[in-house]
Amino acid sequence: MAQESEAAKLRRFEEEALPHMNALYGTALRLTRNPTDAEDLVQETYLKAHRFWDRYAPGTNCKAWLFKILTNTRINQYVKVAKRPAQVSFEDVEPILEQRQPRGLQTETDGDLGVFVDLLDDELKEAMESVPEDFRTVLILSVMEGFAYKEIAEILEIPIGTVMSRLFRARKVLQGSLQEYARKRGLVKE
Q1: Where are the domains of the chain?
Q2: Rg of the chain over all Cα atoms, to the nearest angstrom
Q3: Where are the alpha helices (DSSP H) in 52-132?
Q4: 101-124 burial string, b = 16+ CB within 10 Å, else e?
Q5: Given this model, what pLDDT does residue 107 score?
Q6: How far, in Å, CA of 73 to CA of 45, rounded?
Q7: What are the pLDDT digits (tens) for 23-47?
Q8: CB atoms inside a 10 Å sphere around CB 83
Q9: Could you give the CA distance from residue 152 to residue 163 in angstroms, rounded to a whole number?
Q10: 25: exposed, middle or buried (C-beta count within 10 Å: 0-12, 13-18, 19+)?
């Protein structure tokens, strides 16, 4: 097979990878809980994807490949931060945070659940955040991004049984967190 030109590689990258940016950003935002960190995570994902584009097998699931890069990058960042001791106190940055306007990407959605997460009450957002990150990642990939168990297993490089177990546990944690919320609104009887 003839070697693909750089221009053709770039064109194929733009056609196949860039359409998934909104989905990647939505997931990155749910994982990081910070618009700036989410933007950085998506940027790092695309930098790695472009760098290793020749490893992507044309005709396979590009979205799953990108999500694998995103989740691996997030895991590496999370481990790196967890090992690093805190260096700045909140009091030092509080004045800066108060002046800063929240910013994020404007995302168009195609009817997925991600739109509604932004509209939820604080209690619902807290419930989602109460789910441990390993479980929350599986929940986001399954429920909000629509990946099948097999795809999630490939993205996270874990067995399908682990995907199902984490999804079950994530739903249990979320259910427990939302019971009080449901009682307050008369959605369930005591």
Answers
A1: 1-108, 115-190
A2: 19
A3: 62-83, 90-99, 114-117, 122-129
A4: eeeeeeeeeeeeebeebeeeeeeb
A5: 39
A6: 7
A7: 999 999 988 889 999 999 999 999 9
A8: 7
A9: 7
A10: buried
Q: Which residues of the chain carry a pLDDT beneath 50?
A: 1, 86-88, 93, 97, 100-119
Domain 115-190, CATH among 3.40.30.10, 1.10.10.10, 3.40.50.300, 1.10.287.110:
1.10.10.10
DSSP string, 153-179: HHHHT--HHHHHHHHHHHHHHHHHHHH
| CATH number assigned to the domain covering 1-108 | 1.10.1740.10
pLDDT tens by residue, 153-167:
998 889 999 999 999
Output the six-digit token pair for 20.
């998934």
CA-to-CA dists, residue 101 to 20, 35, 135, angstroms:
26, 11, 31
Which residue is listed with tokens 């259910």?
175
Look up residue 175 and give its two tokens.
């259910």
Q: In degrees, to the nearest 5, what angle opens at C-alpha 115 toward C-alphas 79 and 111? A: 120
Token digits for 31?
């994982």
- In one-letter notation, the amino acid at residue 186 is G
For residue 39, CA distances in Å to 3, 45, 47, 139 come to 33, 10, 12, 21
